[in-house]
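seq:
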Amino acid sequence: MPVRLCRIQRRSFLCACFAVILPGAGFFCAVKKRKECYIMNFMLKNAAVYTEHGFEKKDISVIDGKISFGTAFDNIDRVFDFSGCVILPGFTDVHVHLREPGFSYKETIKTGTLAAVHGGYTTVFSMPNLNPVPDSVEHLNVQRDIIRDTACI
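struct:
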């Protein structure tokens, strides 16, 4: 089965953000317990994983949101053959315009972070060109509430 996208947080055993998108299998998110995400335990076999030593062929298990290397089959819902596929560290974008609150007709936190996940990004930094501008705790909390409720990463 060809894989369109797969990114993991580098050297992280606690899954901060991990997304796998498989054609015909849907979007699996072993990250946060959000309404859109289906939490599942799975194994990625025979992947070329980028580590501090370069690319290495590894099996990766994700069980209860925790990533580990190896072949532990306890509680695995599904095994995916990742032969010929590459797994890279999650990327970080330090300059994104999520535009919410105030300009949601341009983009929302949900759509912007979903696009980031699909591109392999696990961390984004939102620019403060919002309405209200996050120049006080009160205004910042408006954005934080939206992030807490709708962000995919």
